[in-house]
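Predict the 3D structure for this chain.
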Amino acid sequence: MLLALDAGNSNITIGAFEGRELISQWRLRTVHEQTADEWGILLRNLFSPAGLDIERVDGIIVSSVVPPIDSTLAFMARRYFGLEAMFVGPKTDIGLKICYDNPNEVGADRLVNGVAGFYKYGGPCVVVDMGTTINFDVISKEGEYLGGAIAVGIGIAIDALFSKTARLPLVDFRPPRDVVGTNTVASMQSGLYFGAVGMIDGILERIVAKLGPETKVIATGGQAGMIVSGSRYMKVVDESITLEGLQMIWERNHPR
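Done. Predicted structure below.
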């Protein structure tokens, strides 16, 4: 059984694979102060209700954009599973040519999304990951990771509106009833929602024009489902694409 962990700035997503099948998935908050023992106990507590035997885990792969927790996760893997965790990085054999100016600058999650996008949907493709930031990961028809774009995440925009103004409240992100809000909350929700959709579609319009009309666009992340309903370019939501990318990279580097 393979344990795949995608550690992001806000959340860590965990998946258990039997072969290529994702059999269980969990999403937890990324807590920088959590110890290796706390992570180990937490994972054991997740496995038990799901009816999974933690002793069957024979591989662990991690993509992380939070360097302070990397050593903790590595120690947890050794202490609780007796395994050396594989961390995805620019030198990992991912099956794509990385065309970034400096491959060391590319986030592991972006590479993993590119792998799953290309090998699951074909190229050219764009994976739009809506997390703390909104990442656009672009892969060519030939399987080259070309780069992409990084934009402000929706949560950051909401927090900025609340913290940088005197009278605007903290609101939920949701599709508004009408583009014209008739009160402060509705007006903010309209601006946040259609602002996000317009920004994402504006970037995608330029990427698709560059790569060609056959470009596939895949959305993932917390707000993907809501954004897709208003987008002109995003029609496919794949919530497990990052975990599946991790499984693909593990399989490529550990052939049986």
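The CA atoms of residues 57 and 81 lie 7 Å apart.
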